[in-house]
Design a protein that fits this description.
Structural class of chain B: alpha+beta
Largest sheet of chain B: 8 strands, antiparallel
Oligomer: heterodimer
Largest sheet of chain A: 8 strands, antiparallel
Shape of chain A: globular
Distance between the termini of chain A: 22 Å
Shape of chain B: globular
Low-confidence stretches of chain A: none
Structural class of chain A: alpha+beta
Radius of gyration of chain B: 22 Å
Radius of gyration of chain A: 22 Å
C-alpha cells in the first residue's frame, strides 16, 4: 500500500472484511479483491478507498478488462455477489437487475415472459450487466433496437466518495433531471460503480430467418445493402464478414409468420445477382468468434453507415498489399470489429492512418486488444475530441482523488 | 437591469440589428408556453451564427450575466423564462438546414429550424424526422434538444435523444465543443446523450446532427370506443403483452372527447374511453397486426371499432386528438395542464384515484394521454371566478404529480422541469441524486449562468405550484396546438 503510509495491506483487508465479510475479501500480491453484497456495501468500500487514496477497479467477470489502458489498482471491486434480477414488470416491459448478473441469466429470466433486453453483447454467458454497460458493448441487434443509450431507463450508481445516487426511473418516457445513466454508459468505471440498471424490454423475436450472400469484394454489396435499408423490410441485424478475398453479407429478419415469405421474396429481388440462402443463427456469433480467435490486435472501428462496404474493400486491399491478415465483422450501422493477424510497426502506422482518414467524417478507431509489447506505442483510444477538457472536468468533479480506474479511459482520464 | 457598457458589448457581438433592448419589444420574450410566469429580460440577442452566439455568451461569462437560450418559446414548463436582468439568446435567426445526407441518413440543422421543416425537407426522398411534439409546426429543434421532446409517436420511434447523433455546443464559458458524431460510439463520455434534455442549463446548441428515418409503407389508425378509460387502458396493456409495438396509442376520456368534438368535429364516438391506435410498417404486417388489435379491443368490450378509411380521415382523427387540450377551454373557463408518467399497469388504479381526488374537492379532471408509454396529461378544470377554486385546483394538480411518483413514475414525460416543477423534482429524487446531477452542471457551467434557477429545487422548502393554463399567443392565433 504505497499511497497511504499508515495503512498496511493487512489493515486494509481487516477493514474491508468488516464491511463485506471475511470470506469476501481476498488478496494476491498487492491486489485486494472485494465482493460487496449490495449497493450499500459498495458505497462503504468506495468510501474507505477514497478516504485512504486506494485505487479501485470495478470488475464483473473480467471479459473486457483488457479494453482501455491498464490500471494499477489496489482494490478490485467484484460484483459477483450482486447477481439478482430484482424486478421484472413484464406488463410494463421493464426490469431492474443488479450489475453482477450475467447477460445470459438476465435474458433467461426475461424469456419466461417472452421478453428480452434487445442487445446481443459479447460473451453473454459470462459478461455481466455492469461490465457490458460500462464498456457500452453492443452487437448486431443495435441496427433495429438501438444501443444501450436507448435501452437503459435508469440506474443506481455509487460515486467514488460512497454517495449512492439514482438516475432516470422505471418508466420509458421520462425527462426529469439529467440522464446520468447516459454519462455512466461507456464510461469504463471512471465515474462511479454501476450497482443496478433499469432496462426497457422488447418482445422476443419469435419468428426469425437468416439469409446470407457471398461476394469476392465488399463493394459488390454496396448497392443491394442500400436498397435493403431503403426497403420496407426492417432487418434486426445485417452484418458483413470479410476475410482475404471473400465477403459474406448476413441478414436477419423477424416478422409475423405471414410476412416472412413476402420479405424473403423481396430480399431475393434486392439480391438478384447473388445466391441468397438460409443459414443458421449461429452466424451471428461471428464477432465473438473473431474476438476469441487469438488474433494479435482487435479494434472497434466506427464509420458512417453508408461507407461500410467501401472501407471494408479498402482494408482488404491494404491487407493484401501489406501482407497483414485482416478479418472484419461489420454491422450495417457502421460499427466494425477488425482483427489483425500480426502486430508490427506497419500496423501501428496503418491504424493511425485509418484514424486520420476517418476523423473527417466523425469515425474512430479504438484498439481493444493489443500485445503488451505495443502498449505505450499506440494510444488505444485515439480520442481527438475538443470536448476532452470538459470530460476531464467531469471526471475531476466525480472523482477528485482519481481512485476509480485512473488513466484507463480517453485522454488518460 | 443590464449596465449600459454590457449592452454595448452585446451590441458589438451581434450587430445593431441583433439586439433588442426596448421594453415593449422585450415583452415578447417575457414568458414561454407557461404563461403565468413572466420576467422581463435585460436584453434579447438574435445571433445569426455560432460565432455570434459565442460572442454573446463570452460577454455574459465575462460579466457573470445569466443567459437563457430560446427557440419558439412553446415550452410548457417555463424553461425559456428569462432570468431577471439577464440576456435571452433567441436562436430564431439560425434556421438553416445545413446538410442532408440520405446515404448515411442524417441531417445537420441549426437550432432555429422548425421541427416540421426537417420532415418537409426529407419527405420527397421517402424519409421523415420521427419526434413529433404537437407543437411541431412551430417549435424548433434547439428547443426539442433542450427538452428531449417526444410526441405521440415516440412509443415506437423514441425521443429526441434517440435521434440526436451530435450537437455542437457553445459552453457557458463561450468555448465551442462538438459532442457526439454522425458515426456511432465516438470515444469518450456520451456527452451528447447528457446534453439532450438538459433544458438549456449546460450551454447553447448551435448545430445538431439528427437521424432521419425511412417512411413506413402504410399507416393505419383505428378508433375503439370503450365504457371507461380503464377498459381502454387494459386494451393497451393487452396489445403490448401480445408483443406488438404500435407507433402510437392514445386515450381520451369523455370530457376530452366532448371538448375535441366541440372544437374540431372529429366525429369521435361518444364514450367513456376512446382509444386511438396507430400501426405502421410493411402493408402485409400492418394488416395482420390490425386484425389482432381488433380482436383484443372486442375482447375488452369495445362498443365500436372504426378504422380511418383515408388519409383525410386519419388526419381528422389526429387533429381532434392534438386539439383536445386547447379545446378544453370550451368546456371550462380555466384549466391546469399536467404532464406525469406512470407505469402502464398502474393506469386503471391511478385514473380511479385521480377521479376520487377530483370528486373530493368538487372539481373535474379531463384526461388525454399517451397510453402506450403511460404519459398522462390530466387537465384540471376550474373557474377562477369562484373564490378559492384556483388554489384548490393547483393543489390537486400538484398532488396528481405526487401520485405519479408514488406509483413508480415521473413528474414529467415530455414537458420538462423548467421553472414549474423544480420542487417536484425534489419529490422524485433524493438529495444525493440531485447533488450528483449538480456535478455535471458544475463541470459545464461552474459560474451558474446558463439558465440559472431552473430544473433543480431551490433552497427554500416550500413547494412549487404548477400554474393555471393561459393560452399561448400562437395558440390563440390558431397557428399551433401546444400540447
Amino acid at each position: 500500500m504505497s499511497t497511504s503510509a499508515a495503512l498496511t495491506v493487512e489493515n486494509a483487508i481487516a477493514q474491508l472484511s468488516a464491511i463485506v465479510g471475511q470470506d469476501c475479501v481476498h488478496s494476491h500480491e498487492e491486489l485486494i479483491t472485494v465482493s460487496p453484497a449490495d449497493t450499500r456495501q459498495i458505497a462503504q468500500v468506495l468510501h474507505f478507498a477514497n478516504e485512504n487514496g486506494l485505487v479501485v477497479t470495478p470488475a464483473g467477470s473480467g471479459t473486457k478488462q483488457e479494453w482501455g489502458n491498464p490500471v494499477a489498482a489496489h482494490i478490485q471491486l467484484g460484483t459477483e455477489r450482486m447477481r439478482s434480477v430484482r424486478e421484472h414488470s413484464w406488463q410494463d416491459m421493464t426490469c431492474t437487475v443488479e450489475a453482477g448478473c450475467t447477460w445470459e441469466a438476465l435474458q433467461a429470466e426475461l424469456q419466461r415472459h417472452g421478453q428480452m433486453v434487445s442487445l446481443d453483447p459479447l460473451w453473454s454467458d459470462r459478461a455481466t450487466v455492469g461490465g457490458i454497460v460500462a464498456a457500452n458493448d453492443s452487437g448486431t441487434l443495435r441496427l433495429k433496437y438501438g444501443g444501450l443509450r436507448d435501452l437503459i431507463i435508469g440506474m443506481t450508481i455509487v460515486l467514488a466518495d460512497g454517495t449512492i445516487a439514482k438516475t432516470g426511473g422505471k418508466v420509458v418516457k421520462n425527462v426529469a433531471g439529467y440522464d446520468l445513466h447516459k454519462l455512466m454508459t461507456g464510461s469504463f468505471g471512471t465515474l462511479g460503480v454501476i450497482a443496478e440498471v433499469n432496462f426497457r424490454l422488447h418482445p422476443l423475436e419469435e419468428h426469425v430467418r437468416t439469409w446470407s450472400a457471398t461476394a469476392s469484394d465488399a463493394k459488390q454489396f454496396e448497392g443491394p445493402l442500400r436498397a435493403l435499408l431503403d426497403s420496407q423490410i426492417v432487418p434486426s441485424s445485417v452484418q458483413i464478414r470479410a476475410k482475404r478475398a471473400q465477403c459474406s453479407l448476413d441478414i436477419r429478419v423477424a416478422a409475423v409468420p405471414e410476412c416472412l415469405d413476402k420479405h424473403a421474396f423481396d430480399l431475393d429481388k434486392i439480391f438478384s445477382g447473388f445466391s441468397l440462402h438460409d443459414v443458421e443463427e449461429s452466424i451471428w456469433h461471428a464477432r465473438q468468434d473473431l474476438c476469441d480467435a487469438g488474433h494479435a490486435v482487435i479494434a472497434k472501428v466506427s464509420v458512417l453507415p453508408g461507407e461500410v462496404c467501401a472501407h471494408i474493400a479498402d482494408l482488404q486491399s491494404n491487407a493484401a498489399a501489406n501482407g497483414i491478415e485482416t478479418y472484419i465483422v461489420a454491422q450495417a450501422n457502421g460499427l466494425m470489429t477488425i482483427a489483425f493477424g500480426a502486430s508490427s510497426d506497419a500496423l501501428i502506422a496503418g491504424i493511425e492512418g485509418l484514424r486520420t482518414k476517418l476523423s473527417a467524417s466523425g469515425g474512430s478507431v479504438v484498439v481493444q486488444q493489443l500485445p503488451d509489447a505495443l502498449r505505450g506505442r499506440l494510444d488505444v483510444w485515439g480520442c481527438d475530441s475538443n470536448a476532452l477538457p470538459l470530460m476531464r472536468e467531469i471526471k475531476r468533479r466525480f472523482d477528485p482523488q482519481r481512485i476509480l480506474n485512473p488513466g484507463r479511459f480517453v485522454g488518460n482520464i | 437591469m443590464l449596465a449600459a457598457s454590457h449592452i454595448a458589448e452585446l451590441r458589438a457581438a451581434v450587430g445593431p440589428d441583433g439586439l433588442i433592448t426596448g421594453e415593449s419589444q422585450l415583452q415578447t420574450y417575457e414568458c414561454d408556453g407557461l404563461t403565468n410566469f413572466r420576467v422581463l429580460p435585460g436584453a434579447v440577442a438574435l445571433p445569426r451564427s455560432t460565432a455570434e452566439v459565442q460572442a454573446v455568451v463570452r460577454v455574459c461569462a465575462r460579466h457573470n450575466i445569466p443567459f437563457v437560450s430560446r427557440g419558439a418559446g412553446t415550452g410548457l414548463s417555463g424553461g425559456a423564462l428569462p432570468a431577471e436582468g439577464g440576456v435571452v439568446i433567441s436562436l430564431a435567426r439560425m434556421n438553416r438546414i445545413l446538410e442532408v445526407d440520405f446515404v448515411n441518413r442524417y441531417v445537420v440543422v441549426e437550432p432555429g429550424v422548425i421541427n416540421a421543416h426537417v420532415t418537409q425537407r426529407v419527405a420527397p426522398n421517402g424519409y421523415f424526422y420521427a419526434p413529433d411534439p404537437s407543437s411541431q409546426s412551430v417549435c424548433t429543434i434547439g428547443g426539442n434538444v433542450a427538452e428531449n421532446s417526444g410526441g405521440a409517436h415516440c412509443l415506437k420511434y423514441g425521443f429526441t435523444v434517440t435521434h440526436t447523433l451530435a450537437v455542437e455546443v457553445v459552453l457557458p464559458s463561450g468555448e465551442l465543443v462538438t459532442l457526439g458524431s454522425p458515426a456511432l460510439d465516438s470515444p469518450g463520455y456520451d456527452l451528447a446523450g447528457v446534453f439532450v434534455g438538459s433544458e438549456g442549463t449546460l450551454g447553447v446548441a448551435t448545430k445538431i446532427t439528427l437521424r432521419i428515418v425511412k417512411r413506413p409503407e402504410v399507416v393505419q389508425t383505428l378508433l375503439a370506443a370503450f365504457d371507461s378509460p380503464q377498459a381502454a387502458g387494459q386494451t393497451v396493456s393487452d396489445i403490448i403483452a401480445a408483443g406488438m409495438l404500435p407507433s402510437a396509442m392514445e386515450i381520451m376520456d369523455t370530457l376530452a372527447i366532448e371538448a375535441a368534438e366541440a372544437a374540431v368535429h372529429a366525429h369521435y364516438p361518444m364514450c367513456g374511453g376512446l382509444l386511438l391506435i396507430e400501426l405502421d410498417g410493411p402493408a402485409s404486417e400492418v394488416e395482420t397486426l390490425m386484425r389482432e388489435v381488433k380482436v383484443i379491443s372486442e375482447k375488452n368490450g369495445a362498443a365500436e371499432i372504426r378504422l380511418a378509411q383515408s388519409d383525410e380521415e386519419r388526419m381528422l382523427v389526429w387533429k381532434g386528438r392534438k386539439a383536445a387540450f386547447a379545446a378544453v377551454g370550451r368546456i371550462s373557463p380555466n384549466y391546469i395542464v399536467q404532464d406525469g408518467v406512470i407505469p402502464r399497469t398502474a393506469l386503471p388504479r391511478v385514473l380511479a384515484e385521480i377521479e376520487r381526488m377530483a370528486a373530493a374537492v368538487n372539481l373535474r379532471v379531463a384526461n388525454v394521454f399517451h397510453a402506450g408509454d403511460g404519459n398522462l396529461h390530466p387537465l384540471v378544470l376550474y373557474d377562477r371566478a369562484i373564490a378559492g377554486q384556483e388554489e384548490v385546483a393547483l393543489d390537486l394538480s400538484y398532488r396528481i404529480l405526487h401520485l405519479c411518483v408514488d406509483s413508480g413514475g415521473s413528474i414529467t414525460g415530455e414537458h420538462g422541469v423548467g421553472k414549474e416543477k423544480q420542487e417536484a423534482l425534489g419529490y422524485m429524487f433524493s438529495e444525493p441524486d440531485l447533488a450528483t446531477m449538480q456535478l455535471v452542471r458544475c463541470a459545464f457551467d461552474p459560474a451558474n449562468i446558463a439558465n440559472p434557477d431552473k430544473v433543480f429545487p431551490r433552497t427554500r422548502l416550500c413547494a412549487d405550484r404548477p400554474g393555471p393554463y393561459k393560452p399561448h399567443p400562437l395558440e390563440t392565433a390558431g397557428v399551433a396546438e401546444i400540447f
